[in-house]
Amino acid sequence: MLKGNYCSLLFLLAFPSIGFAQQQLYGTITKKGAPDILIGVNIANRSQNKYNASDWGGNYKIPAVPGDTLIFSSVGYLTDTLIAVSWMLSERYDVFLTPRIVALPSVKIDETGNYRMDSIQRRDDYRFVLDKAHPIVLMNEKRPGDAPGFSFSPFGYFSSTEKQKRKLKKRLRQEEEDYYIDSKFSPARVAQFTRLTGDSLQLFMTRYRPSYKYCRGASSQDIFLYINEKTILFRGSEPNALFLEQSP
Fold first, then answer.
1. CATH 2.60.40.1120 given to domain 2-108
2. pTM for the predicted model, two decimal places
3. At what angle do helices 198-207 and 220-237 cross, to 10 degrees?
């Protein structure tokens, strides 16, 4: 009887903590000062090593308890870091990300200076993920009759946490590449060289967006020549629609 009461007591003591651990932070992520929903925003619970991303509706959810550190990041927006408190978890908590301000190009000593500063900041924000190796092989005690070499245990590598971590790393790597391309092939720079605006500028940016590999090896002069070459092609391919919004 005593043993049964003892087990029941342990269950009751554990139950509140189980419910507490199942709390989630959830809501919608939008652009600050605008109704634009933000898709694919990275959300990381640094305290619990949990990761997720906002869906096509800008909605997000991630396990959290009071005191957890959460990071929200997306290309083109300032990273937002917050500490979860009880009231955030008792109702929806909407997040508003501030766009990065991109100045029009003038005389710049280093065209990628802003990118490097932002890259350093992103690296620092996600150092707890990027600097941590994934468990690829877990070495277990070998049993008689096992083949030579290691005994493999895939459970660590294929765990939910490790899958989330790999997805986050992949997204961060892709975002880093996209942001580097944007630093070389920015709308402001293209507009300055081509005199395009509005829909014409957007079409040009989409059609002739260079690869990350090309941008990594391209100098400022290379980028200028690339834009000039593509502008000639663009003029020839859209003779009736181009430069309708061009500045005089």
1. yes
2. 0.51
3. 110
